[in-house]
Every structure is written in C-alpha cells, then in structure tokens.
Amino acid sequence: MYTVVTGAAGFIGSNIVKALNERGVTRIIAVDNMSKADKFRNLLDCEIADYLDKDDFIQRIQHGHFDGEVEAIFHEGACSDTMETDGRYMMENNYRYSMILLDWCLEQEVQFLYASSAATYGGSSVFKEERQYEAPLNVYGYSKFLFDQIVRQRLPEASSQVVGLRYFNVYGPRENHKGRMASVAWHHFHQFRNEGKVKLFEGSHGYPDGGQQRDFVYVGDVAKVNLFFLDNPDKSGIFNLGTGRAQSFNDVALATVNGCRMLEGEEALSLEEIKGRGLLEYVAFPEALKGKYQAFTQADLTRLRAAGYQAPFATVEEGVAQYVQWLARS
Known about the structure:
- This protein is of the alpha/beta class.
- It has ten helices and 13 strands.
- The longest helix is centred in the first third of the chain and has 22 residues, at 87-108.
C-alpha cells in the first residue's frame, strides 16, 4: 500500500514526507507541479517510491490506476499565494482538485487529510471551527472555505477518515522556494544576513510599532499533528492547527536577530536594544495588503485537544531558534 502526499515538493508537503521517512515509511507517491523546478531540493534527503505530476496523478486516479493501492492521502497541494488575483486558477487548483480527491478517497475508503487554512476566518476575532466566524478576505481564503463547507456536508455519511487542518502562520525548514510568500522568519533571516537588520511593517489596524499579533506555528509541529491523525483513523473533522498563542511580529524579529547573533557567538539582546542599535526597521504598510490582511490570529485548540492531541507547541522563541540553525546550515 502507498501513502500519497500532494504538494510533496512544497513546504509542508516535504516536511510530511520527511516525517514519514523518519518513522520508516518510504512507499510514498510524491505528487506536485514542478513548474518551479527548484522545489526538487526539498526532496533531496527524502525517500519516495515514485513521483507524479499533479495532472498525471488526477488522470490516473480517475481511470482506476490506484484503486485498492493507497492507504492515505495527505493533500497539501494548493496555490497558497494570498495575493493571487486569478480566481479561476485558484478555484480550479485549490477547490476542484480537492473535490476530485475527496470523492475518490470516500469511494475507496482511503484516509484523507488535507490542508485548510486560517485564511477562512478573514478578519474575524474569533478562531473557532464554526461557520459564523468564517469570512475570508481573498479568493485564496474562499477556495479553502468553500471546500471546508463541502466536507462538513459529507462528513455525516463518510465511511472513512476526512480531516481538514486549518494551518495558521507556518514557518520552518523547506520553504526557500516560496520567495515573497515565505514566512516572516525566513525573510528576517535573509535580511539580517544581507543588510544587518530586519524590517517590519509599521503599525496598522491599531497595533503600534509592528506589533500585529499572529499565531506562528513551527512546521515540525504541523507534521506531528498530521501524523497523529494518520495514526487515529477514527477521528474526523476540521481542526485548527496553530499554537493557541498569538505572538507579535516583534517577537519573530527579536528571535531571528538573537538566533543570528548566537551563530556569531554574540549575546542575546532585548527588543529595545535591537531597536536602539538599528537592527530593526519599520517600513510602510503596503497598500496592496490593506483590507486583505489578518492583523490578529490565535487558534482555538479546543477541538484539537478534545481529539486527543496533547503535545505542546513550540513558541516563537523556540521554533525560530531551531529554524535559524537550519537556515545557517542549508
């Protein structure tokens, strides 16, 4: 039996492939779109059984090629660019692709674990997995929101596991290919290495001095939650996947600067000290993001904890420190 990971050469998908390898699973079919060829680097240290282009994979499952041969699908493949304005492309790539796989998994009774997003909540101040709190601000969020609604309709009759995980602000190894859509921590590391300082958007939405707060979750923890549900096929539903803690972008900047300083054997500084030394710079908030930007996110973990996942999540300070070490080696 195979395990399928879509978006396998991407950020979260490649971390799931690596986590599966670490528990001895190598019969993995990696599915992706390699139009951005440099993504292959994410799989260099991974073991897989086969690689298929996304379109080839869809054709094969629709023609029965994998009937009875797949144990589980981790569906991480999607366009995650929140600034994408081509709605037809977004809905085809995110919503329709997911629908094809959902139908097939339910028919085949295959475990289906898929990437949803905190973008479904939009500008809400409440982050519970309930319809009244969901109001996406862009077509990316809508593509995830709409599929979640279909899943909710199907769950009562589902004969196999369906799990949607609403990722909050994920950061960590294997996101180099994402460019401008990479995490704030990735950008801060490279800014500090190249310019000797990091940059944050200045205050917006009532938050002073770059202090907007988000729920930043380390990708290693994201992989662990995915594998938890793989190990518990009786558990289905839509679950938030964040830390349950909102931390400021200032915290990310400080953790990155101190992580880089530790690489050089230098002592950690306070936020006021990095400001005073010119190691942190605030820049104007982009017009293109106004009205499409979540100023605050904080996952409500009630459902995730009730499902039995009790492991702690890394803080920004812990996760960014690990990430800086990885970036310095890569």
